[in-house]
Design brief:
- It catalyses: a 3',5'-unsubstituted flavanone + 2 reduced [NADPH--hemoprotein reductase] + 2 O2 = a 3',5'-dihydroxyflavanone + 2 oxidized [NADPH--hemoprotein reductase] + 2 H2O + 2 H(+).
- Its cofactor is heme.
- The chain contains 17 helices and eleven strands.
- The protein is α+β, with helices and mostly antiparallel strands.
- The chain has one domain: Cytochrome p450 (Orthogonal Bundle).
- The longest helix has about 30 residues.
Length: about 500
């Protein structure tokens, strides 16, 4: 015990020395003309600004930016971090300096959850990342690939509608995130590995949802060990222990999926699925060799991000419409005029439903699925807004703050889809070119599933709104609190009663 105490004291002493070196020596070094760091909070010895972030970092950082400005510097342990909080600041980093910030910093999530950065999300910017991205776009996420599996989405959505009609007949509330996760996981499963992941909704699908939420939550934490590497071994917050345990559960699930997939290869002769295509590219060159670990890591990306981010947007949209019944009514009126009540909404209808699209954009703005973009890191020193940004500085773009900036949006705290129907906002698009609305990020590392995410949100949300009347259970209050994570969850899952509003024949799969 005495030996351990001595080691601990030595580690803390070294961390203290490193803090004062980086805090004062480096600041004085870069405070020469044109080498001034952006303004930011002072923080504390050793840990820097880490304790200031609290349990809702996106809110804390947004409030800090009101004091320190659109480009803000924080000393995070022994690491540098810069935060962009306005469209212009985001554009400077993600467009002008995109290549310099094309890599991810090392962190516990990438190590313990993403197979040591062997996936697409955390992989270094290089040949393997480009190959994984190319294969994903070509066989799943790109325009043609999305069209090819449109029928899968239609059929799986039909199963979901039938289950909802049954719940309605029994007077049961629909738990929205559980329902969406079940349906989306089955949609993705059929494209990825040619099977529905869950045959029936129940404990297995609910456990999967809990695993996805846990992954997104833990990956969003500001882990002390990521910012003070010398004390990472202590795992003071217990975050890494949780990640390792969760990784084992996901690895077991993914290994089983791949083993079953290999055994049934003969059944897919002439009809390869996504995993077949990816595995056929196992060896392209020495620099682009893919392994079993890469396949697992890629499936993990697609299953988790593909279910959680889109489902959270749909859940927030429905919650806002339950809070604002006039918005639900206007959406119903638009759909009844364009589609009627004798059939389901089709994906081809979406372009004729501008108010539905405005609802989706307004949800992307007010409740972005990723409140803080996945961190990037500078490969070389650079300058932004006259401030010096050192090499190896982590970048965080506060997408949540941009969406609620009163200098950008009129009455930003109000949910007003109409803002996207006329005027300067009518042409704003969430695909990464308009920095006022970047729910999927922007630049080279924009979310690979941007196109798929928009299609899923518009199609599924539109179908749910068109097909049912929605209301809260008696004496149940609608809770709009947030729960922070890599994806922005509702603190209390939405559960609501639905009543069919279409002809019964429209609910057949």
């Amino acid at each position: 015990m005495a030996t351990l105490d001595i080691i601990l004291l030595k580690e803390l002493a070294m961390a203290t020395i490193l803090f004062f070196i980086t805090r004062f020596f480096i600041r004085s070094l870069v405070s020469k003309p044109n080498r001034k760091l952006p303004p930011g909070p002072t923080g504390y010895p050793i840990v820097g600004a880490l304790p200031l972030l609290g349990t809702m970092p996106h809110v804390t950082l947004a409030n800090m930016s009101k004091k320190y400005g659109p480009v803000m510097y924080l000393k995070m342990g022994t690491s540098n971090m810069v935060v962009a909080s306005t469209p212009d600041a985001a554009r400077a980093f993600l467009k002008t300096l995109d290549l310099n910030f094309a890599n991810r910093p090392p962190n516990a999530g990438a190590t313990h959850l993403a197979y040591n950065s062997q996936d697409m999300v955390f992989a270094g910017y290089g040949p393997r990342w480009k190959l994984l991205r190319k294969l994903s776009n070509l066989h799943m996420l790109g325009g043609k690939a999305l069209d090819d599996w449109a029928n899968v989405r239609k059929i799986e959505l039909g199963h979901m509608l039938q289950a909802m009609v049954e719940s309605s007949s029994q007077g049961e509330a629909v738990v929205v995130p559980e329902m969406l996760t079940f349906a989306m996981a089955n949609m993705l499963g059929q494209v990825l590995i040619s099977k529905r992941v869950f045959v029936t909704k129940g404990s297995e699908s609910n456990e999967f949802k809990d695993m996805v939420v846990e992954l997104m939550t833990s990956a969003g934490y500001f882990n002390f060990g990521d910012y003070i590497p010398s004390i990472a071994w202590m795992d003071l917050q217990g975050i890494e222990r949780g990640m390792k345990h969760l990784h084992k559960k996901f690895d077991k699930l993914l290994s089983r999926m791949i083993d079953e997939h290999v055994k049934t290869a003969h059944q897919r002769k002439g009809k390869p699925d996504f995993l077949d295509f990816v595995m056929s590219n196992r060896e392209k060159s020495e620099d682009e060799r893919l392994t079993l670990i890469n396949f697992k890591a890629l499936l993990l990306n697609l299953f988790t991000a593909g279910t959680d981010t889109s489902s959270s947007i749909i859940e927030w949209s429905l919650a806002e419409m339950l809070k604002n019944p006039s918005i639900m009514k206007r959406a119903h009126d638009e759909m009844d005029q364009v589609i009627g009540r004798n059939r389901r909404l089709e994906e081809s209808d979406l372009s004729k439903l501008p108010y539905l699209q405005a609802i989706c954009k307004e949800t992307f703005r007010k409740h972005p699925s990723t409140p803080l973009n996945l961190p990037r890191v500078s490969s070389e020193p650079c300058e932004v807004n006259g401030y010096y940004i050192p090499k190896d500085t982590r970048l965080s773009v506060n997408i949540w703050a941009i969406g609620r900036d009163p200098n950008v949006w009129e009455n930003p705290l109000e949910f007003t889809p109409e803002r996207f129907l006329t005027g300067k906002n009518a042409k704003i698009d969430p695909r990464g070119n308009d920095f006022e609305l970047i729910p999927f990020g922007a630049g080279r590392r924009i979310c690979a599933g941007t196109r798929m995410g928009i299609v899923l949100v518009e199609y599924i949300l539109g179908t749910l709104v068109h097909s049912f009347d929605w209301k809260m259970k008696d004496r149940v209050e609608l809770n709009m609190d947030e729960a922070f994570g890599l994806a922005l969850q509702k603190a209390v899952p939405l559960a609501a009663l639905v009543t069919p509003r279409l002809a019964l024949s429209a609910y057949q799969a």
